[in-house]
Design a protein that fits this description.
Layout (H helix, E strand, L loop, with lengths): L1 E8 L7 E7 L6 E11 L1 H7 L9 E2 L3 E9 L11 E4 L9 H4 L7 H10 L9 E3 L2 E5 L9 E5 L3 E3 L15 H12 L7 E5 L3 H13 L3 E6 L2 H10 L3 E4 L5 H8 L4 E6 L4 H9 L1 E9 L13 H6 L3 E4 L7 H14 L8 E6 L3 H10 L4 E5 L6
Parallel strand pairs: 4-8, 11-12, 11-14, 12-13, 14-15, 15-16, 17-18
Antiparallel strand pairs: 1-2, 1-4, 2-7, 3-5, 3-9, 3-18, 5-6, 6-10, 7-8
Helix pairs in contact: 4-5
Length: 373
């Protein structure tokens, strides 16, 4: 067992504790990773707010990057010293979705890892205060080290900044993937993105990369709208002033071809549907609290041949898409640095989540092992 520091969550009415926990060595087809960077995401915030159910205690964090420090029995494609980005949907390679290439829908990953808070064998590798401690989405990157399935550690080029590329493991793969893979936005299409956090800004960059003719950014924070313009938006709408759907239709009178809801609130999902033109698609990328429902007019949807698409992890195939996105970052096509609003020590995990909740932060990085950078 290895002792390390990690951010432990015990319940919605209790503060996050950055404390010493024990980590067991990797089992068969697992690897241990020293975490260099861990992105702070709204999915972590949903947990802290009690909006999603999960077994506790749990070590938070599902966006991360680092260096492999140990490998378990049967691992053949990864070695100690490899630089990796962690994927929160490790694939089993055997279920019908994996075999069909729909890795983001891996059933074993969703049923065992996401629902159970364990690794594929149904047990955790973490212990806190003498009791079992669970993994968050098979990653638990708010820690100095993590043990993950080998399919959840994606080997990447060594010359990429090890902390920055953590963003590719969730926000960037989700946002760019929603545009390129889920919606398959063609060149010349008109696009709006509601919400300019890490995922929304990645949607905007994805739309720019595929050659969208109009990219409208919607947010409540002027600074985020300014950054959206830098990253590829052609127009902005301040969500604080007036009816968002009406403002979008002023900019694109025929309605939009694609509207991405990168927030996942009921109001933003309904805005995305309401702003569509004929044949348009609303893409729900941001994840709402469990149990909420949105409404729309089915007649209008049918008559206009519109679609509502759900996008989980940007329909990502991690072993294909994560190295490609890092190559695009290194070539200058994809801007990750501008999306990082702060770098913080692991001890500030709770404060980072508070800043995310306030709407003031973009992507913050926790640095559990600054000596790796």
């Amino acid at each position: 067992m290895t002792s390390m520091m990690a951010a432990v969550f015990r319940g919605a009415d209790q503060p996050i504790s950055v404390q010493s926990v024990e980590l067991a060595p990797p089992g068969p087809h697992e690897v241990e990773v020293a975490i260099a960077g861990a992105g702070v995401c709204h999915s972590d915030l949903h947990m802290v707010r009690g909006e999603w159910e999960h077994r506790t205690p749990v070590v938070l964090g599902h966006e991360g990057s680092g260096v492999i420090t140990a490998v378990g029995e049967g691992v053949t494609d990864l070695s100690v010293g490899d630089h990796v980005v962690l994927s929160w949907v490790p694939s089993c390679g055997e279920c019908r979705f994996c075999l069909a290439g729909r890795v983001a829908q891996c059933q074993k990953s969703l049923e065992v890892i996401a629902a159970g808070g364990t690794l594929f064998d149904g047990t955790p590798r973490l212990t806190a205060d003498g009791e079992a401690c669970y993994h968050y989405l098979g990653v638990s990157s708010f820690a100095q080290r993590a043990v993950v399935p080998e399919s959840g550690a994606i080997k990447v080029r060594r010359d990429a900044p090890l902390d920055v590329i953590a963003l590719v493991g969730c926000a960037v793969a989700t946002g760019v993937g929603a545009v390129r893979s889920t919606a398959q936005v063609p060149a010349g299409a008109t696009v709006a993105v509601i919400g300019c956090g890490g995922v929304g800004l990645s949607c905007i960059q994805g739309a720019r990369m595929v050659g969208a003719s109009r990219i409208v950014a919607v947010d409540l924070v002027p600074a985020k709208l300014e950054l959206a313009l830098k990253l590829g938006a052609t127009d902005t709408v301040d969500g604080r002033s007036g009816d968002v759907v009406a403002r979008l239709k002023e900019l694109v009178p025929d309605g939009l071809d694609f509207v991405f809801d990168a927030i996942g609130a009921i109001v933003t999902t309904e805005q995305a549907i309401g702003a569509l033109g004929i044949g348009g698609a609303a893409v729900v990328v941001g994840l709402p609290p469990a149990g909420q429902t949105a409404s729309f007019e089915p007649l209008s949807l049918a008559e206009s041949e519109q679609r509502i698409l759900g996008s989980n992890y940007g329909s990502c195939v991690p072993h294909r898409d994560i190295p490609d996105l890092i190559d695009r970052y290194m070539s200058g096509e994809l801007d990750l640095d501008s999306m990082i609003s702060a770098r913080r020590p692991l001890a500030e995990a709770s404060a980072a989540l508070d800043d995310l909740a306030s709407g003031s932060a973009l992507r913050q990085l926790l640095l559990p092992n600054p000596d790796l950078l």
